[in-house]
Amino acid sequence: DGGITQSPKYLFRKEGQNVTLSCEQNLNHDAMYWYRQDPGQGLRLIYYSQIVNDFQKGDIAEGYSVSREKKESFPLTVTSAQKNPTAFYLCASSMTSGGAVFETQYFGPGTRLLVL
Amino acid sequence: AQSVTQLGSHVSVSEGALVLLRCNYSSSVPPYLFWYVQYPNQGLQLLLKYTSAATLVKGINGFEAEFKKSETSFHLTKPSAHMSDAAEYFCAVRTGNNRKLIWGLGTSLAVNP
């Protein structure tokens, strides 16, 4: 079955530690996205990538980093510079043919990051 | 600037009652509008989307939404609520050829027996 997988489901971070969240898709989508979700704040865009080896900062990129070495994969690293990382992280992807306005973003199941 | 407002962060209905979740947008160009649903501790699932083909859009699980340009609204409705409809609902807008979606803050729907 085609879809988006995120791992792990739960992740615990210690002070000063970098952690990496995995996002893999087998939908053959070109664009991938990372969102952060906090209660009552909706979804906020962290980074997005339209093609391999290219990515752009979203609205809250500070303290995060990404890479896009393969079309299928878009891992997110939460660095020690992110002082309030506790949140639910969602990865999404979309197909870029036909123009951006018609694209639908499809979401993975999410990773909940907690600070020890 | 584009924006999305979802009126009512929490809505409670009885099972079998009408569901109405409100979404208003602000955009200077024709918008493309989306409704997503999120069940607890899960990702978001597309319910329906408006892309200018028809103003009344039917989606999954019996939901539909009507685009009203004069009211800048895209409210989500379902004639009869089911217990399984209890979830968080998000409205989002995209304008122009821009990959970024602008999201509302969400409305939590509770369905009472």
Structure description:
The complex is a heterodimer of chains A (116) and B (113). Chain A has 116 residues and is mostly beta strands. In chain A, 0% of the residues lie in helices and 48% in strands. Chain A is built from no helices and eleven strands. Chain A has strands at 4-7, 10-13, 19-25, 31-37, 43-51, 54-57, 64-66, 76-78, 87-94, 106-107, 111-115. In chain A, strands 2, 4, 5, 6, 9, 10 and 11 form a seven-stranded mixed sheet that branches. Chain A has a four-stranded antiparallel sheet with strand order 1-3-8-7, with no helix packed on it. Chain A starts with a strand and ends with a strand. The relative contact order of chain A is 0.33. Chain B is mainly beta. In chain B, strands 2, 5, 6, 10, 11 and 12 form a six-stranded mixed sheet that branches. In chain B, strands 3-9-8-7 form a four-stranded antiparallel sheet, with no helix packed on it. Chain B is globular. The N and C termini of chain B lie far apart (41 Å). At the A-B interface, strand 5, strand 9 and strand 10 of A face strand 5, strand 6 and strand 10 of B.
In short:
The complex is a heterodimer of chains A (116) and B (113). Chain A has 116 residues and is an all-beta fold.
Extended strand count of chain B: 12
Give the CA-CA distance, first to last residue of chain A: 35 Å
Question: Average pLDDT value of chain A?
Answer: 92
Unreliably modeled segments of chain A: none
Q: What is the oligomer described by this structure? A: heterodimer
Shape of chain B: globular
Shape of chain A: globular
Helix share bin of chain B = under 10%
Estimated share of beta-strand residues of chain B? over 45%
Helix content of chain A: under 10%
Round the mean pLDDT of chain B to the nearest integer and report it: 92
For the secondary structure, the number of strands of chain A is 11
Major sheet attributes of chain B: 6 strands, mixed
